[in-house]
UniProtKB/TrEMBL annotation:
Protein name (database record): DNA-binding response regulator
Record keywords: DNA-binding, Phosphoprotein, Transcription, Transcription regulation
Domain Response regulatory: 3-121
Domain spans labelled HTH luxR-type: 150-215
Membrane-traversing stretches: none
Cross-referenced PANTHER family: TRANSCRIPTIONAL REGULATORY PROTEIN NARL-RELATED (PTHR43214:SF24), TWO-COMPONENT RESPONSE REGULATOR (PTHR43214)
GO biological processes: phosphorelay signal transduction system; regulation of DNA-templated transcription
Superkingdom per UniProt: Bacteria
Residues where 4-aspartylphosphate is found: D54
Length: 226
């Protein structure tokens, strides 16, 4: 059973998300918060598997909450799925930096939100495929990030892992990658399990951020990212 905490300052959104997720046989909504401070308190009390956080909330923002829940020393450490109205927003970039494992727009299809919760719960991470390149290229340009790894990707990853990282950066799912490379999905999962620790990350989304930060993925100019 996937235990989920929902935090959003809009009552209708909270109720809608709670009803959507609670209807799934493998998901239990263990808490609902209307602001960041309450979300953090409930997360510490209830230790959910996934926290679905709005970014803009009274008191402590979703970014603040994500930063605390995703920190290596956090107890409990909770996977964070960010749900937002804004597709290109400094708050979104802050959430990525804070360690969020997933990012979706609130107007995503209900089945996509449910799928995202399941993906994030098992550490796979997720991001809206139509926004991956826009958001992450904008993220890199606005933050003016320098490469964070002291070694070249060729020294860190096998050729196949490198291929998979590039396909991840295009927003592909495990099934998409398997079809593209003509391998079994289980093979893709095995490569991912070995690749993530090499990059020092814990989710697919963080691996994609790593790829953009280190210019493994060719980053277009800010104007072409729109």
């Amino acid at each position: 059973m996937i235990r989920v905490l929902i935090a959003d300052d809009q009552p209708l959104v909270r109720a809608g998300l709670a009803a959507l997720l609670a209807a799934e046989p493998d998901i239990e909504v263990v808490g609902v918060a209307q602001h960041g401070t309450q979300a953090l308190a409930l997360a510490r009390e209830l230790a959910p598997d996934v926290a679905c956080l709005d970014i803009r909330m009274p008191g402590r923002s979703g970014i603040d909450v994500a930063r605390e829940l995703c920190a290596p020393q956090a107890d409990p450490q909770v996977q964070v799925l960010v749900l937002t109205t804004f597709d290109l927003d400094d708050y979104v970039f802050g959430a990525l930096e804070a360690g969020a494992s997933g990012f979706l727009l609130k107007d995503s299809e209900p089945e996509d939100i449910v799928h995202a919760v399941r993906q994030v719960a098992v550490g796979r991470g997720t991001i809206d495929q139509t926004l991956t390149r826009r958001i992450l290229s904008e993220f890199v340009h606005r933050r003016r990030l320098q490469p964070v790894a002291g070694r070249r990707v060729e020294e860190l990853l096998t050729a196949r892992e490198h291929e998979i990282l590039l396909l991840l950066a295009e927003g592909m799912s495990n099934d998409d990658i398997a079809r593209n490379l003509v391998v079994e999905v289980s093979t893709v999962k095995s490569h991912l399990a070995r690749m993530l620790p090499k990059l020092g990350v814990t989710s697919r989304l963080q691996a994609v951020v790593w790829a953009y930060q280190n210019r493994v993925v060719a980053v277009p100019g800010p104007d072409s990212a729109r």
